[in-house]
Amino acid sequence: MGLRAALLLARGRPEGAFLISMEGPAAQFARARHSFIAMLFCVPLFLVVQNMGKIGPDVPDPSGITAAREFASFILAWLGYAVLSYRLAGTFGCTPDWPRFIVLWNWCNFVQYLLILGAMVPSLAGAPAIIGQTAGIVAIGWSVWLQWSATRIALNLRGGQAALMVAADMTLGMVVLKLTAG
What we know:
The model has no long low-confidence stretch (mean pLDDT 90). It contains seven helices and no strands. It is mainly alpha-helical.
């Protein structure tokens, strides 16, 4: 249900967010916990995205330490934002809506990885650089818009509040990446 909701939202259909039913509090948190399975679906996509430019005879780190650091940053940023978003939801007074948000956010991450992978296709197919760059910009813009929309709708926030939450996610991701870099 979460993936279907994210796909609808990615197509500009806000009703997708409300496919995620919100029964009693215990069921809400169980559904939120279960939605972290999306992270497992994203791992192969993450690995492809991270290693797309590293294919070839000159592998910079044959020991795998760089890959381990990248994977650690993936896990830390994902789980760290889940915790941070719960705190931010409390700050904005929308903690009761957080389980719906985190389900949607988890599955929107999967859709975002698909968008990024799709943006890599023109470059891999040998298209002119401008086409690959344009595809990358479109994918990143669509991904940010998707997360902002999911945040705004699921938590019933104003646009600026949702933008702050998206900025917090991006900032956390950059900090974690910097801390785990070699």
